[in-house]
Amino acid sequence: xxxxxxxxxxxxxxxxxxxxxxxxxxxxxxxxxxxxxxxxxxxxxxxxxxxxxxxxxxxxxxxxxxxxxxxxxxxxxxxxxxxxxxxxxxxxxxxxxxxxxxxxxxxxxxxxxxxxxxxxxxxxxxxxxxxxxxxxxxxxxx
Length: 142
Known about the structure:
It is a single chain. With 142 residues, the chain is mostly helical. The chain has one domain (10-87, 99-130). It has helices at residues 3-23, 29-58, 64-85, 101-130. The longest helix is centred in the first third of the chain and has 30 residues, at 29-58. It is elongated, with a radius of gyration of 22 Å. The two termini are 44 Å apart. The model has no long low-confidence stretch (mean pLDDT 82).
């Protein structure tokens, strides 16, 4: 296994362990599990098929992967942010939702789009470097 993937796997396992540890502190575990189950269903029934369809219809060539990845991350960010985004108006207690969630959600989406654009650009540069130089019309190998 490549060292980068091994590092990402270890980081993912560590973050998952932190998440499981934090779940031990939750008072309404049934509500959290229902929400997590709903997020899985939302992702598998709606977000993933839409992303695949959009990627298949709109994008061709080497940028399909980064666009699909960006759409998946944007969909997951939206699913997680949905409860805060759908809260109408200001709460009575200002500490309940103290941040500007719509702005932060949009900034996260811009970051995802920027990373996808950088990955696409890096792939284009790499492909251009790997391509053999064209031969002139008069140059014929003998």
